[in-house]
Amino acid sequence: VSVLTTAERDRVCxxxxxxxxxxxxxxxxxxxxxxxxxxxxxxxxxxxxxxxARSAVGADAVLKAAEEFEGIAEAVADCGLVAGTTAGExxxxxxxxxxxxxxxxxxxxxxxxxxxVAILFGSEKVGLSNEDLSRCQALVRIPTETGQPSMNLGQxxxxxxxxxxxxxxxxxxxxxxxxLATAADQERLTRVLAxxxxxxxxxxxxxxTRLRRLVxxxxxxxxxxxxxxxxxxxxxWKLKNGG
Amino acid sequence: VSVLTTAERDRVCxxxxxxxxxxxxxxxxxxxxxxxxxxxxxxxxxxxxxxxARSAVGADAVLKAAEEFEGIAEAVADCGLVAGTTAGExxxxxxxxxxxxxxxxxxxxxxxxxxxVAILFGSEKVGLSNEDLSRCQALVRIPTETGQPSMNLGQxxxxxxxxxxxxxxxxxxxxxxxxLATAADQERLTRVLAxxxxxxxxxxxxxxTRLRRLVxxxxxxxxxxxxxxxxxxxxxWKLKNGG
Lengths: 243, 243
What we know:
homodimer, alpha/beta, seven-stranded parallel β-sheet, elongated
């Protein structure tokens, strides 16, 4: 189960400020669709790029519904929490810089509380300006390496949204786990394996215990155990009835 | 504090299988540099793309040091845990599909135990094939929306690596795991098992794939794999040299 409901995701606004590259705008929109977000807002996009991205074959609903704004103030007017993303190297930030993990928790709390949340991403070249950052209540840093801090725009959007939807409650495997072999199945498998080993002439005192441990170690599913049994029975038959 | 040490990150191999788009190969390499990973391996890349990506202005050290392989077996031969990423829609997976959050925990445990870990990403068009997936002990799904499951390659790499390095103190609960058998060990075990089966007269077409899956399913430790090999070699010897 995801941490955010559909209604909560719908209150997240991804705001791209001054983006120039149509591929990056498209990639941001795609990541949004992948993770179930719909509100894309562009502040002063480079017009030809925006047009090109929008008219690209396969441009999806997110991009088609993207809204354009004159400035950040207009783009985030209806939002409760405004979080700016930054590599956090080049500037003296006004707000303390949080790692994404912590920033996302604050965003989630606001979304749960019914507020809209904006996440701002700067342009590929210069990121968010000091003026842009001054409009943010939270400054968020994706934990990149200090030697290589600056992420591709589409990848930064993907990682940020992933952090919002990843779930600690989702740690179990999703498929219904295959039932494990019963202790009795494991015992049968251990026996036939010991018999095959004995028939091969390599059997030793204490084999059963050693083999039982080996069989248990594998956490076999019932189906696996069945398959192994078939294999060893056949091998055993051959060993006993001649080669 | 990051969950993975520098030495542990250096044991992660990002394996791109059949990638065609130079921009995506470059984006994958950039995400690796952002998060402190260095080992990029390409299986059957589309040659002109690989050359173009490598010679791009600003192509970084990761891309320049990328290695090329003929097949997946060769690319992951030195790795203990091989995890395949999949949108998990189109196929009946052999292994249960795990969400990235859970899969990453298993990878971290293996890295802590000293093993190498491979993460496989399929081509932009078709993802990983069934044959490719049969070489994986873990199938990992980034938790995308069912209506829009398929991620851009560079973004999928970024999100997967981010999950590996993001920190929440999850480390504390980690069990110390025994290092898993390498893919090469598993392959050897699969072969000797197939040979034993053939020698017993029960061999069938397609055994190798079936047996490989069975061997991988068990998540064998290096020590277990060694023991099984000894058993099967003895049985095989007996089958061939008379009963």
